[in-house]
Write a structure and sequence with these properties.
Structural class: alpha/beta
Number of helices: 22
Strand content: 15-25%
Distance between the termini: 66 Å
Radius of gyration: 44 Å
Number of strands: 23
Helix content: 40-55%
Shape: flat
Oligomer: single chain
Length: 805
Amino acid sequence: MFRPAEQVLEFDRLKDIVSRYSTCAPGRRATLGLQTSQDVATLDAEFALVREGVAYFRAGSEFGFGSLADPEAWLARLVIPGSILVPAELLDVAWLMDTAHAVRQAFKAEAAKYPRLTEVAAALVDFRHLSTAIRRAILPNGEISDDASPQLKRIRESISQARNKIHKSLEGILRARGEPAGEDYVTLRNERFVIPVRAGDRKSVPGVVHGASATGQTVFVEPLEAIDLNNRLVQLSEDEVAEIARILEELADRVRAERGPLESAAAQLAHLDSIFARARFARELDCVMPEFTRGNFLRLDAARNPVLEATLRPQGRKAVALSLELGGEKTVMVISGPNTGGKTVALKSVGLAALSAQSGIPVAAERAETPIFDHVLADIGDEQSIAADLSTFSAHVLNLKSMLGTATERSLILVDEMGTGTAPEEGAALAVALLEEFRTRHALTIATTHHDRLKSYASTTSGIVNAAMEFDEVNLRPTYRLLVGVPGTSSGIEIARRLGLPARVVEHARASLSPESREARDLIAYLHRSRDEMEAIKREAREELAQIEVERSTLQTEWVGRQKKRIAELEKSFQETQKRLEGETALVTADIRDRALRAQLEKQSGKRLGKLAAEARAETDAAVLDTLASSQADLGVGTEAPSKPVAPEQLVAGLRVVVKGFKQPLIFRRIDGRMAEVEAGPLRMRVPLADVIGIDIVAKLAKPDLAAGRPSGVTVHAEQSDEPTNQEINVIGCTVEEATRRVDKFLDEAALSSLPSIRIIHGHGTGALRRGLAEFLSTHPLVDRVRHEAEDRGGTAITIAELRS
């Protein structure tokens, strides 16, 4: 009597919509036959296949089985021993076999891109030996080929010879009779070759008459000379039929021997067609693959009712999306709002999302995190039954009784219009009691209501959250948006006024409202206004933050460009000075004839040149320090560091150290007398040891001593160092705030090092760290694109951030 949740939520309609994207009858049946499952591994594997199907389509490829005939009938006939398949059915068998081979070959070349689809395709059996035999025996038009067997070929050659012989014999008789034009032909009657003879001349041709013309003036006679030849031809024809029957029987037996693998291949092809049908559905309706959560946490972002969406899209309209979170301590949601405001659609959207996720169908949402439910229970719609002598209220109570007997902490419960159908006070009390029962069981429950008592109960009870279907009070029409955190108003009196109810009736209704009802309405209106104001403030804050990020990115880009330009100018000046000194030395020594004197002068000039180069390097280092320090001061990022220097014995190559005048730590390389050699991205310089005033121990490099013992050419370099640069950061165990701070610093260093990309190791965990980093990286000015690592190198536990060039 009572409809199951799948029927109430229109799950069969959803499967029918998805099945329209299939390309063959078996695929359509497979899609319509999808059932909910509680096996997470199976569901994850199914969605992995659908995800690859979506990627396959997005790559510009197409896949279908439009020419594959339905194998259901001939597979069923093969169960009967001795049954024979007609040529058309055998051609269908061959087509199924060829399709299986084509699928294997198609994905064999795409194994790297689509490993899971390739695995499914590779499981298809190779039937080419049998397919070749069928196509050799049966021509595309369904006729049996001469090459089907040597015996058939000999029989058909004998038939051809016999026909020629009969023709020659009968044509000789016609020539001997001198028949006029139009009556000198050989024809076929009753499967025997005959000649036409005028009825008056019938006795002139001894033989058997096989019929007459419509006028009766001509009879068709088989002359006595042709009887034996025709008998021979009939016998050969019977031999041909027998041989064809033997060939078909032999082919049917060979196909019957492969019935099991053929059934498996048909099922696998149907499964593949269903996978691609769901991929087309996901692409068409902008669906997402769900993530299954442990516990009872449910989250839907911008979820839509796919049945409603499929109906509205041809009209150029879209279903209004809803977002909600439920689970943890908050297990019950009470949705209130006006009639026709979308409350029932919201319930069905949530229910369909749960059923879709657990049946391998992509969810119509931007994001879907859902637990595995043991039951989806729904009481939606009018269940009145005259035949069973049940009122609407009685039917709902019996439904709720059944749900109470089934619901567990792993169930999803959806109840529409709780407490209706009876006295408001009693209905509200019963609804509160039922919600309290579901709450104590920790079952995820979403209920809709008009009762103010339920709204108050939800506002004052822990574990329950209010939600409202938004209503445009100005235009008096629903917006169908779900607002979580505030109760809704029914707006029945306002709607009645707009629909033309007399003003005196409307005013009388308003005056009849109890003071408590008016206060509750005013409070709800105040909550809605407050929420709108908060949303406006948040929107403005987001816009201001975005503007600040743009300005910060611009300032950072300008700062980096300015420093690179200044350093390049210093490097160029140094190289020009060194080149000039070398040229002057060469000119002086070239004029000296005496070799010994020339050697002495070259030695002296070399020392002088070295001294000048050292002085130039020192001047350049000082200039770089001044430049960077002043630039940081210009940007307002300079900080005053402690004045106490770090002891030299604490300095180890590879440490990140704090240098006076710099906000960001630098990389320590080695001690050179009273100077310390440090690196800032691609820059290498020397600073006084006294200016090294701190150590950043947490960020010690993974390979600290690669630069030890390196000869120091020119001190400041505008190009990237020859030393390998660390491209990986591990933030496992960090909070989202800590991780974003460390990754932000790491991105700055990577940009200065001109790295193309970095790897961020964050692990799987609950996924909060991965999502927080993804959101941070998507708006970072230095990041061009974000993706996950390859499956064999970490998959979703590692994020790759590709930097702007």
